[in-house]
Amino acid sequence: MRLTARNEKEKLVGQSGWVRTDRLMRWLHLYTGLFLVPWMAVYATSAFCLNHAQWFTPWLGTSSWESVGEGRYVGDEPVPLSPAERAEAILREIDLEGPHRLLGQPTNDAMVIYRSRASGDFRVTWNRGDSRVVVERLGPPSFYRALHFLHFIRGYDFPHFATIAWAVTVDGAAISTWIWIVSGIYLWARRPKHRAWGGICLVAGAIVFAVLVAMLCR
User: Fold this and answer.
1) What pTM was computed for the model?
2) What CA–CA distance (Å, rounded) separates 124 from 132?
3) Contact (CB, 8 A) for 117 and 149
4) Domain ranges for the chain
5) In angstroms, how far apart are the furthest CA atoms of the chain?
6) What is the pLDDT of residue 153?
7) What local confidence, expressed as pLDDT, does residue 217 receive?
8) Packing angle between helix 37-51 and helix 161-189, nearest 10 degrees?
């Protein structure tokens, strides 16, 4: 009798451990997904648009650069800055700080900066001779271009709150995707009635993935 009671107790303890794990997995699966709904919606929509660009690009019309303003940047003497530092200083001077890249080969006398933004991209041209900074904007702005920007913006290269915060959410989305994978497999494995169909789907997906990767690598 004592042995039976002890076995029952151990069984209940083991079951309570599985129950806690089940609850944790469901909690992670549910609430990380709910928190990241806006980001995943952006990635899903933008990926679909990129995959079917021929359907959406005709709506954009012809893109063109339009002058939207001018500024001045007198230079960085007596200690010359590096091209990257100078680009940051110029964008700060005209209040356009944010993700950007240098176009062509910048020199100490001239440079062209491509400033990316969800509401529209800018081209900033600086010449030391007249200290003039010309700002052009690529138009027309569109929801499609905004999605494209949000899909590809990444990294911690630019020390601005919005870009750093977005990079953190991208890491969160990546980590959550792995959480969904692990918790989904766990929840499937814990349901004996669904193991057969779940196993078929899991194996079929793995086979199709492997075949496509092999074909794309040829």
Assistant:
1) 0.71
2) 10
3) yes
4) 18-53+161-216, 62-139
5) 98
6) 84
7) 93
8) 90
